[in-house]
Structure formats: C-alpha cells, structure tokens
Amino acid sequence: MSEDETPRERIAYLAYACVAWLGHVLPTHTGRMLFDWAGRAAYHLAPDARAVVAANQARVLGRPTDDPLVVASTRQAFRSYARYWFDAFDVIDWSDERIREHFVFEGMEHMQEAIAQGNGAIAVLAHMGNWDAAGRAMKERGFLITAVAERLRPERLYRVFVRQREALGMRVIPLSKEGSVGRRLVAAAAENHVLALISDRDLTGKGVTVEMFGAPRKLPGGPAMLSLATGAPLIVCDVYQRKDGWHCVMHEPLRIESTGDRRADVTALTHLMAEAFERAISAAPSDWHLFQPGWED
Q: Which of 101, 134, 202, 205 could connect to 218 by a Cys-Cys bridge, CB 3.0–4.6 Å?
C-alpha cells in the first residue's frame, strides 16, 4: 500500500479487490444473485449516482427523469451494471466450451473479413453488456486483442485492473501520453490485432462533437483517426446482456468517401459511429452502463 493513497482511493482498491475475489470463488448463479441484490441496494443508497444514470436514461428515452419508464430503466441499469462487475471476473475461469455456448456472435464474418485483409480491425463499443466477456469470447475464437486502459489511482488498483484484462486474453496499453498510445495502437494494428476501444465517452476533452438523442456531446476521434491512418476497418460492436450470457452484433465496417481533409474525414466517420451507438443504446437503454454525465446539461 502506497503512503500517498487517499482514503477514497484505498476504499476503491479494496472494493475492486473484493469483487475480483468473489468473481473467482462464487459459483456463477450465486454470484449473480448476490450482485443483483447489491445493484438493487446501490440504486437506493447512492442518490447522486442514481440521479446521473436517470438523467442519461431520460435523454435516451425522451422522457422526464421521474417518468415511470425512466425510473424502471434506471433501476435495471444498476442491476445490470452490478452483474457486469461479477461476470467480468467470473468469465476468466470459464472454459472455452462454456464461453462459446453463452456468448453468441452475430455478424462475425465482418470481423473475420477485416482480419483477413491483414491490417487489423478496430472494434468500437459503447459501455454496454459486458465488454470484458466479449474479449474473452474473442480470444476463444482465436483473435488477438489489444485494449486501452484508463490509468487508475491508486497504482495497485490499476495493476489489478490490468491483470484482469490480461487474464481475459487482452494486451493492455495504458492511457497516458496520447502520442505514445497512438503509436502502440498503430503497431498492434500492423500485427493484425483487433483494437477493442470503448468509445462512447470522451476522456480528453478534445473529442468530436456529435449529436446523440437530440443533444450535443463529444466522442473520441481516435478510433476514426486510427482507421484512416492504418486502413483497419472500423466495426461497431453492440454487446447485450442476456439471461444466461451475452449477444454481440458486429456491424459492417463504417465507410465514408474520403475528402482528402483528414479532420473532416475523422469528423464524418465519428458521426457515423455516434449514429450506430444511438441505435444500439435505443435497443436496450438499461444495458448502457454510463454512470457519468453523458451530456453537459
């Protein structure tokens, strides 16, 4: 334990370590029941988080935050997100046969065709379903996966996070200096990796302004920039929770007519990505695990 850890950081580490331990020791059915209870409790005990999620759900559903449909969807989002945390560690120990049985892909041919071209592929995902389980399922199908991890504090929390992703079969690149991340992602694409990028939230403040659900917000321009720079197709992947597993829809690669203006092309491709995310979230709003403000208002 580092002496410069704050009490909040220490609690975050202990909570994450506890979830990791439970994910390894509890049977799947028991763990999901326990975390479902925890999600229900968190909905009632975390009013600030509840307000944020309700605002996001209200925007998606086009209703006020106190509308019964928004309230129900917000409550379900807490339960769904709690299950995500258990499953993210539980699936590490699943056999290949079990993950294949419970993780169903639709449109896998688009990813296979992209990898056959030899330039890698860029899989962009929203915070939906379980992206960690998706990585485990992609590993089972023989894909090489590289992901970017936000640098968390404290450092030992970040190390646990990285070990978890590596155990799922992913190569992890820390989100630090932007140029370094970009170079390493370009190198991974050259090795024909799938670059798995959670892309429905801009962490830099320098993203592309798009419209989603009738209001402006920013999405990262990095995925589009990488695609244009490397030739790796940009494939939107929708991941949904199902009762006993998950369903992932892989769409045809996003395409634009090049204008020769890199900034304009990045913007156009990011707008297409935003439209695809909007459709995916609309299909299952409570599966969107965005627990930070989605819009500035």
A: 202
The answer to whether residues 99 and 140 touch, using CB atoms and an 8 Å cutoff, is yes
Mind listing the pLDDT tens digit for each residue in 34-66?
A: 999 999 999 999 999 999 999 999 999 999 999
The DSSP secondary-structure symbol of 96 reads H
Strand order in the sheet with 145-150: 103-106, 246-250, 234-241, 121-125, 194-198, 145-150, 170-175
Name 220's Cβ contacts closer than 8 Å, sequence gap at least 6: 197, 199, 201, 202, 203, 204, 207, 208, 270
Helix (DSSP H) and strand (DSSP E) numbers for the chain:
11, 9
Percent of the chain topping pLDDT 70: 98
Give the start-to-end residue ranges of the domains of the chain. 7-287
Report the C-alpha gap between 5 and 23 in whole angstroms.
Answer: 25
Beta-carbon contacts of residue 130 (< 8 Å; ≥ 6 apart): 84, 87, 88, 91, 239, 241, 246
pLDDT of 72 strictly over 60 = yes
What element of type H or E holds 145?
strand 145-150
